[in-house]
Specification:
mainly alpha, 2 strands, 6% strand, DUF2795 domain-containing protein, DUF2795, single chain, 49% helix
């Protein structure tokens, strides 16, 4: 499934990087992200910031790059 960049950004609002996939998934779930996005984040290695998240999800992103 393709995720919108803005959807990922909203899911990770309040992130305190660096964070690993489990931490990102928990934050996204708390922020109301859909289960498929939570699952995709869970598989990520530790990232230093939002660009790292986007890099790892790049094959699953679609739509606007946001603001």
């Amino acid at each position: 499934m393709a995720f919108q960049v803005t959807e990922v950004q909203k899911a990770l609002k309040g992130a305190d990087y660096p964070m690993d996939g489990d931490e990102l998934a928990a934050l996204a779930k708390d922020n109301g992200a859909p289960d498929d996005l939570v699952g995709a984040l869970r598989g990520l290695p530790e990232v230093e910031g939002p660009n790292g998240v986007m890099k790892h999800l790049s094959g699953q992103l679609g739509g606007s790059t946001g603001d």
